[in-house]
Automatic annotation (TrEMBL), chains A, B:
It holds the Pfam family MerR_1. GO terms for molecular function: DNA binding; DNA-binding transcription factor activity. The keyword rRNA-binding does not apply. This is DNA-binding transcriptional MerR regulator. Keywords: DNA-binding. It comes from Phytomonospora endophytica. Signal peptide: none annotated. SMART domains: HTH_MERR (SM00422).
Length: 124, 124
DNA sequence: GTTGACCTTCACATCAATGTGAGCGCTCGA
DNA sequence: TCGAGCGCTCACATTGATGTGAAGGTCAAC
C-alpha cells in the first residue's frame, strides 16, 4: 500500500509517516517511481509508535525498543552491546515509573468522578 | 521555602518552576519583596507534575486534573460543569490506554532482555 | 558600603512533534 | 492529451517543554 492508504488506515498524516521514517522508525520499500510501499505490518507498527509517543517515549528511544518487539521470539540484536542492554533496562524502569504515575493519577480521577457522581445523586 | 530550595528539593530548574506557575499548576505566595514562597506540599505537587509530564500528559490537562488530587476526600469542583466531567472521563480513558501501551511494551522489553540474558548464559 | 548569592522579569533560543505549502513528477481516466 | 489526484522533496512555521542570558532588585555578611 502507498502512503495515502497507510495514512487512512492509521489516522496519521502523511507528513508524520515520513517523519517517522526519517527518524528510523519505519523503513518502507520504494517503488520504481520512488513511491513508498508499505505492508500490513506497518499499520501495527505505526499504532505502536503513536502509542509510545503519546505515552511520552521519544523517538530516539522508540527507535531502540522497536527492534525487540517485532517478533518477541527472535533475537534481533544477538550481539547487543552491554550499554544498549542497560539503556533498555533504564527505559524499562522509566516505563514502569510512568505506568505507576499514570495509574495512581487515573485512579484518583476515577475516585474523584465517583465521589462527584455519588454526591450529585444524593444531593441533586 | 524559596525557589532555589524547591529547585534543589525537586531536581527541577527554577525556570521550569516559574513555567509551571505560569501554566497555572502551582501558585506560590509572594513575599513582601516579591520572592516566591513555597511550602512542603509543593514538593509533592511538583513531583506529581513532572511524573504526569513525563507520561505525556500536557500541562493544560494537568491543570485540570490536579485540583482533584490534592485531597481526594474533598470535592474541589462541586459545581463542575458536565463538560469538565466528561473531559476528565476522556482523560482517564486516555491514561488507561497509555498504561496499557506502556505495560505491553515494557513487558516485551522485559521478555527481550530475559531472552538475551538466557541465551547469553547458555551460549556464552 | 560593597560584594556575592539569591531573587525578579523579559526575551530570545532550542528541540521534538507536528502543520502547511510550494514546486515538481507520476498515472489514470475522461 | 490534459487535468485530477496522488506521490516526491524541501523548507519554513508552530506549539510545548525547556535552556540561557541580560538587566536589575534584595539581603546578609564582611
Amino acid at each position: 500500500m502507498r502512503i495515502g492508504e497507510l495514512s487512512e488506515a492509521t489516522g496519521t498524516s502523511r507528513r508524520l509517516l515520513r517523519y517517522y521514517e526519517e527518524q528510523g522508525l519505519i523503513a518502507p520499500r520504494r517503488d520504481r517511481n520512488g513511491y513508498r510501499e508499505y505492508d500490513q505490518a506497518n499499520v501495527d507498527r505505526v499504532a505502536q509508535i503513536r502509542g509510545l509517543l503519546a505515552a511520552g517515549v521519544p523517538t530516539r528511544i522508540i527507535r531502540r525498543i522497536l527492534p525487540c518487539l517485532d517478533n518477541p521470539r527472535d533475537i534481533h540484536l544477538p550481539d547487543a552491546p552491554p550499554e544498549v542492554l542497560s539503556a533498555l533496562e533504564d527505559e524499562r524502569d522509566r516505563m514502569t515509573r510512568r505506568v505507576e504515575c499514570l495509574t495512581r493519577n487515573r485512579d484518583a480521577i476515577t475516585d474523584y468522578l465517583d465521589t462527584v457522581c455519588t454526591r450529585a445523586s444524593v444531593n441533586g
